[in-house]
Amino acid sequence: EPSSPSAAAMSRFVRRLAGIPWRQIAGEASSVGLLMAQGLCAVHVVSEHVLGVAFPRGPSMLPALNMAGDVLLTDKVSPRRGWVGPGDVVLLLSPEDPRKIVAKRVLGMEGDEVTYPVDAGNSDATKTVVVPQGHIWVQGDNIYSSNDSRQFGPVPYGLVKGKMSYRIWPPSRIGSIDSKE
Amino acid sequence: SLRLHGTEEDCSDRTSSQCIRFRAQFTAFLQCFCTSEVQILPVCSDRIVLIMGARSQLWSIAKMSVTGGVIGVTISDRYVTVVAIKGHSMHPTMTATDSALRGDIVLAEKACLDQYKFSRGDVILFKCPSNHKEVFVKRLIGLPGEWIQLPASSEIIKVPQGHCWVEGDNAARSWDSRSFGPIPLGLINGRVTHIIWPPSKIGRVERKWPEDRIPPF
Q1: Chain B residue with Cα closest to A111
Q2: Which residues of B touch A155 (CB under 8 A)?
Q3: Residue A167, domain extent
Q4: Cβ contact, residue pair A98, B78, below 8 Å
Q5: A165, A149, A161: which is closest to A109 by C-alpha?
Q6: pTM
Q7: HSE, side-chain direction, 13 A CA sphere, residue A100
Q8: Which positions of A are catalytic?
Q9: CATH dotted code for B82-204
Q10: Does the distance separating the beta carbons of A98 and B129 come in below 8 Å?
Q11: In a domain, A181, yes or no
């Protein structure tokens, strides 16, 4: 027999606690958690190995890509299979900072001769290089404002992470990205 | 077996003719989708138990393997992966033989790829700069921005930003940065942490500095 009102309230609280179906709640929470984990894994597999989305920013690919606000579909299958060639716009890890992903256009594959303006805007001087084995030469469309192979040299093909060939936003520019040679 | 929850408001009496007609129609409908015979048993007033054949078992095995595969690929991409060593460039730390089962098998972690923060002496996996389909395993000798001494000559070179200098432990049989120069950090696939086969070599792969090299500065 409880001796005081607070002890009575305490025992009522404990009884109510015992009445909550803890096991059922734990079971439902873990099955929802498992479903969410499976969903996240599926999203990872698709966006890393099949088709992803990219939001490129910066002036180096004008006029093909806007400075900001574009949303592009990234094909992740093509680079792995080697279906990348001159004229394609690709996503690659920057050779100057691997945490940065940059979008550039491929101008030459291994063995190709690439002629490029050395100092665009200031002089007409050009240089010709042969792309080494396993490497590619990338350049931004906007040669006046692009940090690319003219500065950091040809990059290994293994740095290419995706090929962008289709824009899905803004609505006025939905469609494929032109592939220039 | 598949359990369907449903309420049969007008089936309070299980033997009523309406109930029987409903069950017959539903059975005929489901029979179109099942290769084996469909039976509906009125177990209780709000449950219908279906007995389906072997086809649904195959389907659940397929579903489980796809789920397992997806989870496995995610773990292997983001957290930890298992790699078999081929090649002798890291002898004696890791050895390879002709058959994959008797060569060393190692565990590589992927958490280091988040910030690309490595330490001198780490053993790393990376894509070959001249062939993106091949993966090499070597020891990291020079970090970005460091000056290192080339072993053969007394030349000193600077490792560019975003790159690293790698060399194999077995200098005589290692094709590494001494031939193809510093590699971009973006080619790195993971860091080797443990050897898990053969049993005699199970243990951590320690960060080690080669004995006769001057540390970089």
Answers
A1: B130
A2: 184
A3: 55-176
A4: no
A5: A149
A6: 0.78
A7: 13
A8: 60, 104
A9: 2.10.109.10
A10: no
A11: no
The two structure tokens encoding residue A51: 């088709």
Residue type, A37: A
Number of domains forming the structure of chain A = 2
Residues A65 and A34 in one domain: no
Contacts of B177 in chain A (CB under 8 A): none
Taking the CA of residue A80 and the nearest CA in chain B, the distance in Å comes to 8
* B212: its two tokens: 């006769």
pLDDT at B40: 66
ipTM of the complex in this document: 0.83
Quick check: is A129 in a domain?
yes
What residues contact A145, with CB distance under 8 A and at least 6 apart? A59, A60, A62
Are A76 and A137 part of one and the same domain?
yes
Return the structure tokens found at A114. 């690439």
- B192: tokens are 């080797």
> pLDDT tens digit string along A6-52?
888 999 999 888 888 888 899 999 999 999 999 999 999 999 999 99
Q: Identify which of B177, B197, B190 has the alpha carbon closest to the alpha carbon of residue B95.
A: B197
